[in-house]
Amino acid sequence: MSRYHEVYAAWKKDPEAFWAEAARDIDWYNLWDKVFDPYAGEYGRWFAGAECNTAYNCLDRHVLRGRGGQKALIYDSPVAKQTKSFTYAELRDEVAVFGAVLQDLGVKKGDRVIIYLPMIPEAAIAMLACARIGAIHSVVFGGFAASELATRLNDSKPVAIVSASCGIETARVIPYKPLLDKAIELATHKPAACVVYQRPMAMASMIEGRDHDWEALVADAKARGRRAGCAVVAATDPLYILYTSGTTGEPKGVVRDNGGHMVALKWSMKNHYGVDPGEVFWAASDVGWVVGHSYIVYAPLLHGCTSILYEGKPVGTPDAGAFWRVIAEHKVAAMFTAPTAFRAIKKDDPQGEHVKRYDLSAFRTLFLAGERADPETIKWAEAHLGVPVLDHWWQTETGWPIAGNPVGLGQLPVKYGSPTVPMPGYELHTLDEKGQRLAAGQTGTLAIKLPLPPSSLPTLWNNNERFRRSYLTEFDGYYTTSDAGYIDADGYIYVMARTDDVINVAGHRLSTGQMEEIVAKHKDVGECAVIGVADAMKGQVPAGFIVLNAGVNRNPADIEQEVVKLVRDEIGPVAAFRTVMTVPRLPKTRSGKILRGTMRQIADGDTWKMPATVDDPAIFDEITDALQSRGMGEGGKSNR
Length: 640
Ligand code: COA
Ligand code: AMP
What we know:
GMP Synthetase, Chain A, domain 3; five-stranded parallel β-sheet; 18 helices; 25% strand
């Protein structure tokens, strides 16, 4: 019997009492004036008046209570051919020293620090060091290009950047330093200092006066006995800013606070993920994404678990058994990754032969998120791993699951295609365009009745107005998730599609609007549209359509290649933007709106309906031809 319904009802009856009880699992310097202050911030603030420190709760607290000798972090890198672990005491010491290094470079409480690092332990150390001294980190994913990094520099205005000489993508070494130098050159805001972790695979050249060698600074700080103490911060102070895609080209700076974040994450570890302190938890993601922030670094450490930081891929490092090796070697109890990783494994090892090579007896549960977990992938994983495979739904904005199957409270029956039920904290409704609640089974926008629970974003960095416009104004009294779906009669949620321009490529959140802005910069492109097309492995991939300016008589294939390069140079390889088609014109409504939704249905091979407002129906034949010339859009039928 699951306790879920009872616990959800208890939260609903008295949300403040519920979260005050959960907050007892956190150490505070000063308790709150109000568990929830509805008059503060944009929609209220959690634990207003309380004081705390996130790094203290992740590390020092456990050392003081006898966990100092337990492994806190295991770094496992098949690409660097290295495994290394840190006990809680060791990690606390490294974090305290690096906190002092940052302070010596002039970083103070409330200052921003950009972290542009691959999946090495220094990423977690730098994040926790910022938390320790009360600085606000902003981690930038390694697959982004220099101009994306520059945008984040200009918006967050960091005092310092922490980076490394290179990342490793399967067998390729990707030098980071040239990207960093280029970003600083492009940005109007120049940080005073860069700390660079030199990796032997590609050493970076350093700029005198600005760049500092990580190891030299740390050695010097240790020699001088420098260690930063834990700063006392307000529960409502920002812990980090994480930029995410959505609605326009400019990424949104999602702000996370200290107090509410700790409370919700700590609660989720036992109640949602069903793990106990001392157990090994593995989120196979990247610290550049929210999953990495929450479930590689903060939540497992808050809970006293051992967390795994894996620098590798599900396939090719060296084979499709990589995940099973890590699970077996480190005795992982619960794992969390994106369905796309499992589709990649399934493609390389359809019969699950690699699974049989490893002892997975300690492994209990697999969690999937980041994109809809398709039933085929879930069934494959269930059959080969023999453990529950549970989809759960969340966003960068929330930092923890909106909906899931809470194994810690007792697993609920799995319905394939559904991430199960809302977590306590989330009152979820399906709304129509007018904001009216829809009945069970009816599709609309999934919206969360305000207030959002602890850990959810209080605002966007330096942009309250954009926060309100992006999330709060569409439906009065609700936060819009920008996900469309429905809730069935049993209260199970089905998340089907985004209502905005966001697409999900290999579990990476990207904006087609941003891609369009870049494609439109090409001098020969008159008009363009970018849509997300269904892809068997990555879930979705972007596809671009361009209309050339009148009088351009260059080879369209050359222009298409230049457009691909433009997007790769501006957003980065992570955009996976490889397909561009030149078409004579784009389908539009009579008022000039591009009919991207219908284009997507054609590309996906779905049955589509001729929009009544279309300018000229023949344009869809041209789009279909272009798609079919690239092997897309086969099987699509119009019911015109
Ligand atoms: N640094 C630099 N480049 C990166 C990068 C990083 N951290 N991450 C990805 N890239 C590059 C890749 O090398 C690839 O480059 P290429 O175009 O030169 O080949 C490009 O970005 C696209 O990467 P991706 O879409 O990830 O495709 P892939 O074929 O390399 O890998 C998967 C496909 C499914 C194996 C991989 O995406 C994966 O493991 N996904 C798991 C999902 C995940 O971690 N999601 C996070 C949320 S849970
Ligand atoms: P991100 O902010 O990168 O975590 O991406 C959030 C978006 O990914 C959500 O708004 C959804 O569109 C999608 N998403 C995440 N998890 C799921 C899931 N389990 N099912 C369906 N969509 C999901």
